[in-house]
Amino acid sequence: MISVLKQDHYAVLGLSHLRYKASNEQIKIAHRKKVLKHHPDKKAGVAGDSNDDAFFKCIQKAMEVLSNSEKRRQFDSVDPHFDELEQDVPTEKQVKNAKNPETFFFDTFVPIFEREARFSRKQPVPMLGAVTDTKEQVEGFYDFWYNFDSWRSFEYLDKEVNEGSDSRDDKRYTEKKNKTERARRKKDDTARLRQLVDLTLSVDPRIKRIKEEEKQAREAKKKGKTQNGNSALAKQQAEEEKQKAEEEAKKKEEEEKVARAEAKKAKAAAANAAKKARRQARDGAAA
Questions:
Q1: What would the DSSP string read from start to end of 133-185?
Q2: C-alpha to C-alpha distances, 132 to 201, 211, 214, nearest whole angstrom
Q3: What is the distance in angstroms between the CA of the first residue and the CA of the last residue of the chain?
Q4: What's the average model confidence in pLDDT over 231-237?
Q5: Cα separation, 34 vs 159, whole angstroms
Q6: Domain segments of the chain: what residues?
Q7: Mean pLDDT of all residues in the chain?
Q8: pLDDT tens-digit series, residues 15-27
Q9: What is the pTM for the complete model shown?
């Protein structure tokens, strides 16, 4: 008979296709069908039915676990099918060498994070998204997953105290060992998830796109500053030339004004001299 800890309760009830998504009603229906088919009473008097009796015990154990919310949660925490799927996580080299790395990336990693999301204490969980996601969306995704708070507890795999032992020391020792093992498994799982997120970040095509967009934005900004600087310089030069022209015009106007004043003064002096000469001439003739 398969060890209870190694038994796949969903598989026993024929719910491998649903697993943690199976509703309580679906579990009850599946259990009822299995009982009707494998109940020992239906095999009464039939030789060689020991295997069916053993399987019936598996069916009852599966129902006991999956019909109890706490026990089911503990089993889901160590779901063997989940661990099998985790073997399908690609390497960085496989992603980069794919025929279409971008398509391969999303087709592969989207379902991986959907599986991981069910273990999050915080809901809803941001999913991987699409290649067109904004920088804020991408940063939000990685910020969440780098700080992922998992409810996986691993107590389902705890070892029981040796059967028939009433020793308190045995009980304390087993509890201490179980606690240590849960902590180790929790630490390993956290490290596993961190490696997954690191890998995803290293091959995420959106990161390259965002960096390229930021580079273009910086260059455009730099170019804009240069153009604005050239425009400002040209404006300053124009202002200086205008001011220079105004100063030259003003200087010329002052010079012309002085020249006119001097010409007027000279004309007046000449008129006075002529007047004086005429008067002297009249005085000489009279004498």
A1: --HHHHHHHHHHHHT--B----GGGPPPPPTT---HHHHHHHHHHHHHHHHHH
A2: 16, 14, 15
A3: 169
A4: 78
A5: 29
A6: 1-67, 71-203
A7: 88
A8: 999 999 999 999 9
A9: 0.70
